Amino acid sequence: MKNFNLTHRIVMAPMARMRSYGNIPQPHVALYYCQRTTPGGLLISEATGVSETAMAYQNMPGIWRKEQIEAWKPIVDAVHSHGGIFFCQLWHAGRVSHQDCQPNGESPVSSTDKPFADDPSNEFTPPRRLRTDEIPTIINDFRLAARNATEAGFDGVEIHGAHGYLIDQFMKDSVNDRTDSYGGSLENRCRFALQVIEAVSKEIGPDRVGIRLSPFADYMESGDTDPKRLGLYMAKSLNRFEILYCHMIEPRMKTVSEIFECRESLTPMRNAFNGTFIVAGGYTREDGNKAVAEGRTDLVAYGRLFLANPDLPKRFELNAPLNK
Ligand SMILES: Cc1cc2nc3c(=O)[nH]c(=O)nc-3n(C[C@H](O)[C@H](O)[C@H](O)COP(=O)(O)O)c2cc1C
């Protein structure tokens, strides 16, 4: 990976913990990340909110306030002291939120005002469609959050463009029903994502920027009628900005946890993108090795296996038994 001296290809996938009380990461999280750090290993943080309106769920961390930046510093330092490379995943939940998580109890914002079709326990508040003139403010929130992440010491940021959150709500045609320059054609639907990438890259340098995408997933009612075209368009467009990496979720992961039989592959996107490619979703030691050996990816991110096995790289090296 350009400018980073990785010693192996096993990446810790971003995983929300929901233990950041008051949206401030707590000191105990340093231990959690350090347990999963190896010298020259890449870790991606839990989803971290870029602003007050970005938030959802309980106790997710943020990185828009001074207090949050200060709280991240010793955590990032701890990972660095173990030789790790640490990227902060920048997140805006969009409509996957509830008014109780929003400033002044307002509706969450989205590309649309469509509520979830299937939300029996009213987990989510119907969203308010962002006006075209409000969109630059959200892009600016990502830019400032990236600056804050570098101030906190992170080596770079991963823009969360996956899993039905705000950026995905713009990209996917089942969600985005806009009629302005951010809706309709594929080019228009991807405009927001690409403007975020551009702003963040200009702020901290493209060599410190990655993005996570899940064109094939329909998690949080975020399916697309032509995911291959979407994934390919994004992979090609990213080259304009020369960002560090593109992290894609395997088509077999329709949600974040269920694995489906699937014939689709990420190879066209991998071939279209010029930077480092990372895959994630249901990988084992064996098929991770196979994906690398066959040239289908550069790096493989592991989620649940890393959660249950903090020393995952060592266990893979020894081919040792794994905790479930
Ligand atoms: C507890 C948990 C929290 C997660 N939180 C995030 C997150 O904050 N951001 C994200 O992009 N993906 C998140 N994911 C998805 C994982 O990064 C990963 O893509 C998924 O678990 C599939 O990979 P795996 O089969 O190796 O676990 C989460 C998954 C789990 C299990």
Overview of the structural elements:
The chain has helices at residues 29-35, 66-81, 135-151, 166-171, 186-204, 227-238, 267-272, 285-293, 304-308, 312-318, and strands spanning 10-12, 42-49, 85-91, 109-110, 128-129, 156-161, 209-213, 245-249, 276-280, 299-302. The model has no long low-confidence stretch (mean pLDDT 97). The protein is built from ten helices and ten strands. It is globular. Helix 3 packs parallel to helix 5 and helix 5 runs parallel beside helix 6 (227-238). The strands form two sheets. Strands 1-2-3-6-7-8-9-10 form an eight-stranded parallel β-barrel, surrounded by five helices. The relative contact order is 0.13. The protein is of the alpha/beta class. It has a single domain, classed as Aldolase class I (TIM Barrel), CATH 3.20.20. Bound molecules: flavin mononucleotide. Keywords: Acetylation, Flavoprotein, FMN, NADP, Oxidoreductase. Its cofactor is FMN. The modification N-acetylmethionine is found at residue 1.
In short:
By secondary structure, the protein is α/β, with parallel strands linked by helices. It is 32% helix and 15% strand. It is globular and about 55 Å long.
Distance between the termini: 30 Å
DSSP strand content: 5-15%
Task: Work out the count of structural domains.
Answer: 1
CATH class: Alpha Beta
Enzyme class: oxidoreductase
Protein name: Putative 12-oxophytodienoate reductase-like protein 1
InterPro entries: Aldolase_TIM, OxRdtase_FMN_N, Oye-like
Family: Belongs to the NADH:flavin oxidoreductase/NADH oxidase family.
